Amino acid sequence: MTATFEVQRAALADVVAIPVTPFAEDGSVDQDTHRALLRRLLDGGVTTLTPNGNTGEFYALSPEERRLVTELTLDEAGDRGVVLVGVGHDVPTAVASARHARERGAAMVMVHQPVHPYVSQSGWVDYHRAIAEAVPELGVVPYIRNAQLSGARLAELADHCPNVIGVKYAVPDAARFAAFARDAGLDRFVWVAGLAEPYAPSYFSAGATGFTSGLVNVAPAVSRNMIEALRSGDYPAAMKVWEQIRRFEELRAAHGSANNVTVVKEALASLGLCRREVRPPSKRLPESERAEVAAIAAGWSI
C-alpha cells in the first residue's frame, strides 16, 4: 500500500518551529535547557518541531551533537508533536542522518539546500533523490533557497520519490514563489513559507499553508496568532501580527542575517530561558543592542 503521509502533510500546514540549540557554560549542548524549551513550545500549542534547522545552528553542530538534538526532540515530542529532522552536507552524511531519524521515530526529514559552489539543476534532483530513496517511509521536505531552480525540477524529483511531500521555500520573492509552486504542482505539495512570519502573509496569498519560525522560540502565542489569522483568510489581522514582530525580524535580518540566531537567543536570555551564547561564525549581540531585544520580548507579555 502506498503511503499517503496525511499526518505529515497536516503538520507542515502549520507553524513549523525551528528550535534553538542552547549551549551550556562549557560550550556543550545544554540538554536540560533544550528539553525545557521544547516543552515550552509544545505547551504553547506548537506541534511541528524541526531539530537541526538553521535557527538550531545546524552547521555549527558536530555529527554527534546533531544526533543528540534529534534524539532529545523526539523524546520530548513523544505523541504530542511531529518531528521534521534537518539533514544535509554530503550525500552519505545526509543519508546517515535521515536513517538515524527514521530509526528514532521521526516522521519527516528536511533536506538543507546543498552547500556547494556548483549546483546544477539535475544535480539538485540527484542529491535529493539519493536521500529520499534511502528513507521511503519518511516524508521528505526540500529546503529551497536557490532562485535558479525551476518548479519542473521539483516535479521531476517527486515523480521518482513520492515521499517528497512538502517544500520549505525560502527565496525572498513572492512572485517567484507563486510561479514556482504552480510549475511544480500547487496541490501536489504542502508549501511552507521558509522565510518565517515576515513573508508568511504574501506567501499564503500565493498558496502556502504553513510557515517556519524562529521567533516562536520566544513567543509561541504570537506565531499561533498569525497562523490562525492566515488560515481564516483574515489578512488585516495577520498584518497586525506582522507589525508586532516587524522590528524583531528586522534585527534578525540586519547585516545579511548575521544576527538571525543571535537575536532569538538574546530574547530568550532576557527572559531567563537560556544562555545567549552562539557559535562561530555567529556572534553574541553587542551590549548596546541587547536592551532593544529585551524590550521587544517583554512587550509580547510572554
UniProtKB/TrEMBL annotation:
Keywords: Lyase. Its EC number is 4.1.3.3, 4.2.1.41, 4.3.3.7. GO terms for molecular function: 4-hydroxy-tetrahydrodipicolinate synthase activity; 5-dehydro-4-deoxyglucarate dehydratase activity; N-acetylneuraminate lyase activity. Belongs to the DapA family. Pfam families: DHDPS. It comes from Streptomyces flavalbus. The lineage of its organism: Bacteria, Bacillati, Actinomycetota, Actinomycetes, Kitasatosporales. This is Dihydrodipicolinate synthase family protein.
